[in-house]
Write a structure and sequence with these properties.
This protein is mainly α and 684 residues long. It is 67% helix and 3% strand. It has 28 helices and five strands.
Length: 684
Amino acid sequence: MHAYPYKAYLSYSHDDEVWARWLHRALESYRIPRKLTNSIGHLPRRVAPIFRDRDDLVSAADLTEKLRQALRESEALIVICSPKAAASRWVNEEVKFFRTLGREDRIFCVVVGGEPDVACGPSSCFPPSLFEESAGTNLPTLEPLAADPRDSGDGKTLAKLKIVAGLLNVRLDDLRNREAVRSRQVHTLVSAAIVAGVVLLAYAYTTRQGEIQERQSAERLATFIVDIGEELKKEVSLEVLNRTSSRALSYLAEIDPKRLTPETGVKVALAFRQIGQVSDGQGRLAEAEEAYLKSRELLVSLQKQNPDRSELLFELAQSEYYVASHYFNSDRFDEAELPAERYAELANELYQSDPEKLEWQLERSYAATGLLVMHQNSGRPTTAAVLEEAKQAVQIAQEIYDLRPTDPEILLNYSTTLAWSADTKMLACKLEDALSDRQRALAAIRSALAAAPADNVLRESFAYAHSGVADVHVQLGELAIAHGHYRTSIDTFTAMLERDRSNERLREELEWRRLSLVDALLKDGRTAEASEILDNLGRNSEGVERPALESERGFGRYQERLLLRSRAALANLDHVAFVRALETATAVSTQQESPLTVREQRTLIELAMLWKLHTGKFSSKITVPPYEEKPGVSGCSATIDDARLAYIHDRPEAAIAELRYLKGVGYRGQDAAELCSAIPGCDL
């Protein structure tokens, strides 16, 4: 085999220099696993050297002889692909020249921008010279190996291993298996280093010393904890994780905040926050809460002493956000509201200090949307004041979006805010306004997706946006329109799952959308189509029904499927199947140890109503709450629940009153008509 001075030549546009530096460093620093080199004798110990030209050729008339010689002396060519690279004269020239050397099979592509599925146009990432047949050269059309280090693709680790495997002519699985062994070894060393580091630094701090030395020791300890944050989350065993974060929390708590500079104080506060995140992720909620509260307490003190420092105000706002999120994720919604309101106040103060600063604009928008999220779970009526908050949140997000409509983060913030605003308006039964918000969100995401069709985050947002639009159309009684949106959402999730078959979260979201479509089809009288989808769900989820009860999300989907099966059986006049589905749904509901979600409770109410509709009497086997009249504005779904409960508990006048309210606010869902038809004297 011919020995080349360079393992590979790295071709890239200088607009992609950050990616080029990363790949160059990643490849040259990669050590081939020793066991692999021992089993395959010809392998080198390193993938090096890699030639990377650092000169800009913009003013050159042709490839320099230096670059031609480097291409001749390179065993392989790695092309960093992006729209800029595709349009680069010099990247195309380097590819074209390398192909004339007869080593077309040694060209590897790394996609860092654009769309690999697009052959041409502004979003295409591959240089045309990879595929064209040059006159007089008889160059074949190529299908080069492509790796994608972006988060939406392979990720950096897998992309690097793909390129290494290609350069070495070894199986990717061999490298991945060896890498897994290496990771476990590194994992052990990192764990030991972290424990030793925390103990030694803490000892240095707790030893009596002067104020300056004490401050320096506190800063070193806090910096160490912040710097190992990712290792704490990913690379360390649970036992080491528990021991390390507990020790760090104990040592940090002894630090006197009055003896810290603002810079050191912020580092200590961030260390507390880091410990809170780690503890949260491992389910140690009490320890997480203690860490978050200590972080906030320290930042409150620092900010009072230094009121003019915006970085302290920002970190204080973040501390309120983390406290609110911790309470919210622990289902302590009442406790979450106050820190969420403080976060909004501080974010607005940041914005007022510099209205032109994008970071402060976004912080203000995040906080405004967060208040809507809190209201969704408060259980309180959606008042005019809450609707005004929703309007303000959308206005803030809209102003930022209008300035940078192509920025992915800003687009997602805008569409998310519109979605929460729509849900808030649905709580007040303002369906037309909710539909408008949902349609605006869908339009923004559709526009962005047209420019970047392979962006997985946008694809997922596109799927959510369609199902959100469909949900509103169902309540408006526009079932045919809802079917189309649900199907688009389902098709999008299905395509994403085809590319990532192990993604259980996508699988769950797909099943929920299929169940929503089944519900809409049944309401539209299309029982055969609905039954076919339900049957396919059963076949595709072989063996999953019982294990699904182990998680709340799985329980909810299983319960929903049983409800829809009972509805399908009722539509088909199949009394035996109807009773069996209802009894099974009732039985599994009693097995759920954790409190039922709102959706699961709603399903039980619907099951109890169906039983009474079919048998003429209430089933004591199904536990539902009593009917209670609720003053003020209610959401459409909540009012349907109340109407059903009134019917179940033999309060027909109250049920009719609830249905009359729904009609007055424009609700045209089929479920209201179904219930009305069962109540004597209901002519709405």
